[in-house]
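TICKET: design request
STATUS: open
ATTACHED STRUCTURE:
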């Protein structure tokens, strides 16, 4: 059976992805890291069983195509609009600064000019997948730094498309550089425009016709045909498959069927994307990394030190508090799939060497490994020493908050979904309160509603004093940022040691941290939701309200022992 080696390697790759992903989850790391390590262990550069990676790489290419297609479909313009200034302006500025600094470092390391450019470009692109996963795990998608980080990664996604068009044209242009760049850019714009109008005319009608047949199998085939067909068609015209896939996604995003397309695509995307990372792991050569330890150390330093420093400085320059800038920089202190796509293009076209490709992959793998540790342990240290030292921006224009006459009031840190409910009920009961909010857009909304609010970082003692925390009855920290909440609790209790504090956590580890910091009560919304489900279930099964309450209180005592 001549096809047997293909299926053998496929089984090994899927098994490595599964075992590596399980091990990574057990260790509290992103599954992506497990895929990479699994690929290293079975690859040709270790005593692994796979000596030929072309079989897996062929399927991995499908993962790249599906990933870029999904980016095209899911580009959330509404979310980007909320932080458009810092996401677009700051994201582009940071990308250029990081790229230029990395190029200078590459030159110092002796890289030729073309390799300097590809190295700088690869270092400037964070991993959208890793950033989103960490924000979701920490419950920080709706925080200011979460929205900014998502916005910047989306801008970087778009910049990757531009790089995939311009860098190969520039690297292979010879002396007529500008002519080749303009030709490549013009071709890309013409194809984008043509495909957009053709897609607007035909794709909605095609999706509608297939959807009316009410056959999931046919709809899936239609999705795959659009993805692969557009990719192959544009690749035949000279553009990269990744660019073709993104364009296909951008066209489909205009369709009413885009949500269903994603629903059918994502499970298949996850399978092929995991194979992509396994195949990347197979390409990582531990011996190469061992032979170039100092160069590898420099690459890791660029990713985990230079990147967050530049990003934090840019976010701070756009007027955001020091804590938001620091957290944004730390979330994006890694590179991943976008850099892999660009570096793979460079090595396939022989613009960069296998050694540089291996060092970029090794640096990316190490950055993904230490990024969660930086957030978990480095954020509190940096916020405590640097976040409060930065001068807070001026409050937005609006009626001044007069907290000097308040006493026994409630100070509410964060006015999202939870904070808004507290504000509404306190207002209905006539209980005085002051809101501290870090999102300037939300502050403007509260000011228009006549709510007493301050714009600033609640971990800053000046902001807490402005809210009258030394005379307050209760401090309610409603946001999900446990690190910032920990600093806020300590600062508030230094001002008023007898203050009662209620805070919000995402898991038992954060609960213990906040209680150790001095919180009187810590709420885990997911746990409380489970208790309400349990209450309804017990009463539906015939238990009395008192019996249900007794069981719930016992469970709370077990979950949060004193």
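STATUS: resolved
RESOLUTION: sequence designed for all positions
ATTACHED SEQUENCE:
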């Amino acid at each position: 059976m001549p096809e047997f080696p293909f299926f053998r390697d496929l089984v090994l790759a899927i098994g490595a992805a599964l075992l590596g992903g399980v091990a990574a989850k057990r260790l509290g790391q992103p599954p992506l890291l497990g895929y990479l390590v699994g690929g290293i262990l079975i690859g040709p550069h270790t005593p692994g069983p796979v000596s030929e990676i072309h079989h897996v790489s062929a399927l991995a290419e499908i993962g790249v195509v599906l990933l870029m297609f999904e980016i095209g479909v899911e580009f959330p313009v509404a979310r980007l609009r909320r932080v458009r200034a810092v996401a677009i302006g700051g994201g582009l500025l940071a990308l250029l600064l990081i790229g230029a600094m990395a190029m200078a470092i590459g030159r110092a390391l002796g890289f030729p000019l073309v390799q300097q450019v590809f190295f700088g470009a690869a270092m400037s692109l964070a991993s959208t997948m890793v950033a989103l996963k960490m924000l979701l795990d920490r419950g920080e998608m709706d925080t200011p730094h979460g929205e900014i980080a998502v916005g910047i990664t989306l801008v970087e996604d778009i910049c990757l498309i531009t790089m995939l068009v311009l860098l190969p044209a520039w690297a292979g242009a010879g002396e007529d550089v500008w002519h080749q760049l303009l030709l490549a850019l013009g071709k890309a714009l013409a194809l984008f425009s043509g495909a957009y109008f053709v897609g607007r005319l035909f794709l909605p009608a095609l999706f509608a016709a297939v959807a009316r047949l009410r056959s999931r199998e046919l709809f899936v085939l239609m999705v795959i045909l659009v993805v692969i067909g557009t990719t192959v068609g544009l690749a035949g015209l000279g553009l990269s498959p990744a660019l073709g896939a993104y364009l296909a996604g951008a066209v489909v995003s205009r369709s009413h069927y885009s949500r269903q397309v994603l629903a059918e695509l994502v499970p298949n995307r996850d399978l092929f994307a995991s194979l992509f990372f396994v195949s990347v792991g197979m390409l990582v050569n531990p011996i190469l990394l061992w032979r170039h330890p100092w160069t590898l150390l420099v690459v890791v330093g660029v990713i985990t030190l230079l990147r967050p420093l530049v990003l934090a400085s840019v976010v701070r320059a756009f007027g955001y508090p020091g804590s938001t800038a620091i957290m944004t920089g730390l979330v994006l202190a890694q590179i991943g799939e976008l850099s892999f796509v660009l570096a793979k293009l460079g090595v396939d076209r022989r613009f960069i060497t296998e050694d540089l490709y291996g060092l970029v992959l090794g640096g990316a793998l190490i950055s993904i490994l230490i990024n969660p540790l930086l957030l978990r342990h480095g954020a509190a240290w940096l916020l405590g020493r640097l976040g409060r030292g930065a001068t807070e921006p001026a409050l937005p224009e609006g009626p001044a908050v007069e907290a000097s006459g308040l006493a026994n009031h409630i100070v509410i840190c964060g006015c999202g979904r939870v904070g808004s409910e507290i504000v509404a009920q306190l207002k209905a009961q006539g209980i005085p309160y002051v809101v501290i909010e870090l999102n300037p857009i939300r502050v403007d909304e509260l000011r228009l509603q006549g709510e007493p609010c301050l714009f600033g970082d609640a971990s800053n003692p000046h902001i807490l004093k402005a809210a009258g925390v030394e005379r307050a009855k209760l401090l309610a920290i409603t946001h999900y940022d446990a690190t910032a909440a920990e600093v806020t609790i300590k600062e508030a209790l230094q001002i008023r040691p007898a203050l009662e504090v209620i805070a919000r956590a995402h898991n038992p580890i954060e609960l213990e941290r906040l209680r150790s910091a001095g919180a009187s009560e810590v709420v885990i919304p997911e746990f409380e939701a489970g208790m309400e489900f349990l209450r309804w279930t017990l009463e539906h099964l015939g238990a009395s309200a008192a019996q249900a309450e007794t069981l719930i209180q016992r469970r709370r005592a077990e979950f949060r022992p004193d």
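CLOSING REMARK: Confidence is low (pLDDT under 50) at residues 387-400. Residues 177-211 form the longest helix (35 residues).
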